[in-house]
Amino acid sequence: MKISPDGQVVEFQSRDPYYTREKSGIKLNTVRRFLETVDGDDDYRLLVSSLFHLTKIRIIEPTTNQSFERFLTDVTYFDGRFIFSWSPQEG
Length: 91
Prior knowledge:
This protein is an alpha+beta fold. The chain is about 20% helix and about 45% strand. The relative contact order is 0.26.
């Protein structure tokens, strides 16, 4: 996971078949688990501190380096997982 310097874009990697389904609009969300450890988890803290500023999600397929961006429509925390949902239109 990465968050852009301006705090508005969260970036994740995704592999096929998920990447193709996410890019095409068939699958409009991704579920990510971040463990909050006793020693602290930088990704978790960064994500939580950025939640109110995030407007877009970028998904990257790491083997081809292809990517797409979409506008976030919702970020939900449930049962130790973050669910990121987005609009099917290009962002």
